Amino acid sequence: MPDHVHILATPLEASPGEWYALPEIMRRVKGRAAYEVNKLRGRQGSLWLTESYDRIVRSSQDFDEKFLYIQGNAGVKRLTGSLDEYDGFCLSG
Asked: Are 72 and 42 in the same domain?
């Protein structure tokens, strides 16, 4: 997306039975992304707005709804006509 990011992911286990917490995951993702974007632009400082919509998906129905929203959002922004034409969508298992 040109003005925001969608991530639909499953956290890794930090240790047996313990998963990385959403705030820690987002801190790392946003920190690394800000570092790389600023490096490419030759800038320093904050990249992300303080507002975010970080949520935990707790059911397969909720997952499906979020997945379809993300897929459709690329079409609304006219980035793609179909999922397979959008290189910003990565499915891995």
From this structure: no
